[in-house]
Specification:
The chain is built from 16 helices and four strands. It is mainly alpha-helical. The longest helix is centred in the N-terminal third of the chain and has 24 residues.
């Protein structure tokens, strides 16, 4: 399936979910759905660098927070539409990703992971001491109760859900297009054996810089609507451990070598965490992630998609081969 039809299919699924939510008349479905969609975008963004390229990024919360605090800065500077804030937040996070990549991508393995973790610490320290965005006290964001779009009034949480659904459709479609492109094959070569890829003429540094930029931009866009979702943003919430852990755990549980892996992992873990929040406590969320991640590492180290590939190796290998891509 081509990228545009796939994108329209994703948008259609989001529209169906939106209509069903309105028909049921329960706004909590939009709150929970927003969180799951947010994790889809966050996990998809992380997977471009961590899954496709094989560079594990422990600083995902930093890019997420950059998007969130960009919205705070724009809200204090003047009123802009939310989609514009999302775009600017993604641009800011992408530029930080580019800079981080230029400084750290000559490192590999655990050294690169530690460098990304250091980035998160540095960014949080900057935000804590930046009074314009509230510093350690945090910042309140007053959102309207509803928004009028072409004469149609929507409660703001439904507007946030629709925005995140569109963003998730774009992010997943972009990740799928990257996976099936020359860029995706180059990133896969880096993941499998970077030294061999460089010896064969693959521009490894250039491709890694593209991956860090795209990955950072998607994670930043996932965080940009957060201040309007929670109403009060502070460093401990924007740089929360749950975002950093889930961004890694969701692709690993779903499978890191395909665009579908982060989506599967985000839907599974996000739904379980929302159920735990309303039935037990949100404190149990990271416990659920830890138990599932441990179980999958032991039973299915390649994730859910790895299990599927294990039982259907011939067919999946055939479909992924570039000679047969035109027949899909």
């Amino acid at each position: 399936m081509r990228t545009l039809p796939f994108l329209f299919g994703c948008l259609a699924l989001g529209a169906i979910a939106f209509v069903l939510g309105r028909a049921l008349g329960n706004d909590y479905l939009f709150f929970a759905g927003y969180t799951v969609l947010q994790y889809i975008v966050l996990a998809t963004g992380w997977n471009i660098l961590g899954g496709y390229t094989g560079y594990v990024n422990f600083g995902s919360a930093a890019f997420f927070a950059i998007g969130a605090y960009t919205s705070v800065v724009l809200q204090k500077s003047g009123s802009l539409p939310l989609p514009v804030m999302v775009g600017i937040g993604g641009l800011a996070a992408g530029l930080v990703g580019l800079a981080m990549g230029y400084l750290t991508l000559r490192l590999r393995g655990a050294f690169f992971a530690i460098a990304t973790l250091a980035l998160a610490v540095v960014m949080q320290t900057i935000v804590v001491n930046w009074n314009y965005v509230g510093g350690s006290r945090g910042a309140y964001i007053l959102r309207p109760a509803a928004i009028d779009i072409a004469g149609f009034t929507l409660p703001y949480i439904q507007y946030l859900f629709a925005t995140m659904a569109i963003l998730a459709a774009i992010g997943v479609s972009a990740a799928r297009a990257i996976e099936r492109s020359r860029l995706g094959f180059g990133l896969a070569a880096i993941r499998d054996d970077e030294a061999a890829a460089e010896a064969c003429g693959v521009p490894t540094l250039k491709l890694k810089l593209v991956a860090t930029t795209l990955s950072g931009a998607l994670m930043g866009m996932a965080g940009a609507p957060l201040p309007y979702y929670i109403g009060y943003l502070q460093p401990s919430s924007a740089f929360g451990l749950d975002y950093a852990i889930n961004a890694i755990a969701m692709p690993m549980i779903g499978g890191t070598t395909s665009w579908a892996g982060p989506v599967i992992g985000a839907v599974l873990l996000g739904t379980l965490q929302q159920l735990a929040t309303v039935t037990i406590s949100s404190v149990a969320n990271l416990l659920i992630v830890g138990l599932l991640l441990t179980g999958f590492v032991m039973v299915a180290p390649n994730g859910i998609l790895g299990l599927v590939q294990k039982f259907r190796p011939g067919r999946i290998a055939l479909r992924r081969h570039p000679l047969f891509r035109g027949q899909q």
